[in-house]
Design brief:
This protein is α/β, with parallel strands linked by helices. It is built from 15 helices and 15 strands. α1 packs parallel to α2 and α3 packs parallel to α6. InterPro entries: Aldolase_TIM, NADH_flavin_oxidoreductase, OxRdtase_FMN_N.
């Protein structure tokens, strides 16, 4: 008898009313580094649609931690705006998680406190080619202590803003992932080499966040189980990473995959449309998207496209796991639950239908309308932020107003 996706579950100090999480998806709904009124509306709508917990994507833990200039940043000044968002979600009966992160060398910002963007290793910065930052610098022990404190402080601010959980982003090629990945981490000290060493700094971040807020908030880690590139981590490595994060005390792992620059189709499970409807005005992002489309093989979407990888993690640990990757029908969701995953995280499906979970619960629907076309990803850069092309575009006016 497998667990019902509509049953409650405890994650750390938190109880979720069902097994559905809205995965973090960059919405393009931040204005001057603050949540916009449109972002509040989006997350409140997800809670109203019966999602147990929604995730606010990419909250930078410092100014240097941003990838783009207007990115959400957890600061004392931004707290009232985040509070407006968490209050709106709670009013609709949902919980809300802040994804806390640092971009490392994955940044398009030129103004920073260090000469070059920080990363696991120094040298040529391929990500910086588009913004003229051709070099990155290896973090020193002092840099690490500062960034660890930034994460702990970001988590405390998230608690003060009314968030119920924090999700430490350790995947997709951002700073912590740059330590975990053998493609980025070429260090010769005890932060480089074997997987155990490469996890040392991310585990220190996790420990500091747990110490700071772990009694009050669920502390979640999202990471790439496989990096989808021969030179990167495999799913076998992903299972070992899970063991280390379990040992360090994480309350939940969200099992993603792929890297932003090297293997975006691994992350999304399908190619980006060649005729992408959105004309990107920012020439850097337009170029990046073009390179992405040229480099990536054509991949046809299939449901549960990350299941084989995720199974290896499920076999390796006993802790709660959230399956992410192409669950877009009741049959898929029930299969994931039957295979022993504790929660299902969904991104595109819930952008297409914020009330999908409610429709499943009432029996009004089984299959999502989402076609996994990935156009919502490109919509992120439009004035109205991300939206499903099957629905209405976001309200640009509402997106200009801070929460």
């Amino acid at each position: 008898m497998h667990t019902s996706p509509f049953s409650p579950i405890d994650i750390g100090p938190l109880t979720l009313k069902n097994r559905f999480i809205k995965a973090a998806t960059n919405e393009g709904m931040s204005t001057q580094g603050l949540p916009s009124k449109l972002l509040v509306k989006l997350h409140a709508g997800l809670a109203r649609g019966a999602v147990a917990m929604t995730t606010v994507a990419y909250c930078a833990v410092s100014k240097d931690g941003r990838t783009l200039p207007n990115q959400l940043t957890l600061t004392r000044e931004s707290l009232p705006h985040f509070k407006a968002l968490t209050d709106a979600v709670h009013q609709q009966g949902g919980l809300v998680s802040a994804q806390i992160t640092h971009g490392g060398c994955f940044t398009f910002l030129r103004e920073r406190s260090s000469r070059y963007p920080l990363s696991a290793s120094g040298g040529f910065n391929k990500i910086g080619m588009m913004s003229g930052m051709f070099f990155k610098q290896a973090m020193t022990e002092t840099d690490m202590r500062e960034v660890i404190e930034d994460f702990a402080n970001g988590a405390r601010l998230a608690r003060e803003a009314g968030f119920d959980a924090v999700e430490i982003h350790m995947g997709h090629g951002y700073l912590l992932s740059q330590f975990i990945s053998p493609m980025y981490n070429k260090r010769r000290d005890h932060y480089g080499g074997c997987l155990e060493n490469r996890l040392r700094f991310p585990c220190r971040v996790l420990r500091a966040v747990l110490d700071a807020v772990g009694r009050d908030l669920a502390v979640i880690c999202k990471y790439s189980v496989t990096e989808g590139v021969r030179a990167g981590n495999s799913a076998e490595d992903g299972a070992q990473i899970a063991r280390m994060l379990e040992r360090e005390g994480a309350h939940l792992l969200v099992l993603s995959a792929g890297m932003n620059a090297e293997s975006i189709t691994t992350m999304f499970g399908s190619s980006f449309p060649k005729e992408n409807r959105v004309q990107q005005k920012n020439p850097l992002i337009a170029l990046a998207m073009k390179i992405q489309r040229l480099r990536d093989p054509t991949v046809e979407f299939r449901e549960l496209y990350l299941l084989e990888h995720a199974r290896k993690v499920r076999a390796a640990v006993r802790m709660p796991l959230a399956y992410l990757g192409g669950a877009k029908s009741l049959a898929s969701i029930e299969q994931v639950m039957a295979e022993g995953f504790d929660l299902v995280a969904m991104g595109r499906v819930l952008l297409a239908e914020p009330d999908y979970v409610e429709k499943l619960a009432t029996g009004a629907s089984k299959n999502s309308i989402c076609t996994a076309c990935n156009r919502c990803v490109a919509m992120m850069y439009t004035p109205g932020g991300t939206s499903c092309v099957l629905g209405q575009p976001g309200d640009a006016e509402l997106n200009r107003q801070p929460a």
